[in-house]
Amino acid sequence: MIPRFAAVALALALVVGVATGCRPEPAPSPTGPVFASEDEAFAAAEETYRAYVDALNDRRVDESSRPDPQSFLIGEALEVDIDTQRRLDESGLTLTGSTSVASVDPVSTELDAGSVRLDVCLDSSGTRVLNGAGEDVTPNDRDSISLLTVAFLSSGSGLLIESSTTKVVGGC
After folding, report:
1. Which pLDDT value is given to residue 147?
2. Rounded to an integer, what is the distance from CA 36 to the centroid of its chain?
């Protein structure tokens, strides 16, 4: 059985992702309208999140793959990711397999502030948790489908994921 803190770390890892650690950067401050329309903002946020999930999946196969999943994160999301990776490392746990984005729905945007929120239905049924011996220790009662609210913030190079909050576990 996985210790309780490792199970919590696993849940966070599946929501935010795992990668090697680095220091969080301060949140950028936009200086004017970043997107011409809400549709443009929502499309950019979805593209960013899908690229992030692809980077996570690639990293699980090859630790040196690029881009680094943490390059998509800022603020709270980056801090949680760093802590989650540390806890997984301390527990001797790794994640394998792929996560997929089942659906994305717009929630809100503040064009002038460069912030966007999406609801993302994330399917982690293709992932497994392995212990240090390579044994599958994925909890049998794990919910593999989660509805997340993901917040994005504009930076000089596009959007970054600022936070991810689970709204519903077990279905979207």
Report:
1. 96
2. 26
Cβ atoms 149, 107 nearer than 8 A: yes
Work out whether strand 158-169 and strand 145-155 pair parallel, antiparallel, or are unpaired. antiparallel
Coil, helix or strand at residue 46: helix
Domain extent listing, the chain: 4-25+34-169
Note the pLDDT of residue 33: 59
Q: pLDDT at position 12, please? A: 37
Q: What is the CA radius of gyration of the chain?
A: 16
Helix (H, G, I), strand (E, B) or coil at 78: helix
Rounded Cα gap, residues 156 and 52, in angstroms? 17
Closest C-alpha among 25, 36, 26, 16 to residue 114:
36
CA 170/CA 172 separation, integer angstroms: 7
Peptide bond into 67 cis (omega under 30): yes
Q: Cα 156 to the chain's mean position, in Å? A: 20
Assign domain 4-25+34-169 to its CATH architecture.
Roll (3.10)
40-65: average pLDDT: 96
Residue with structure tokens 């945007």? Answer: 109
pLDDT at 19: 33
Tokens of 156: 């000089």
Region 114-126: what's the mean pLDDT? Answer: 96
The beta-strand segments (E) located in the chain are 94-110, 115-130, 145-155, 158-169
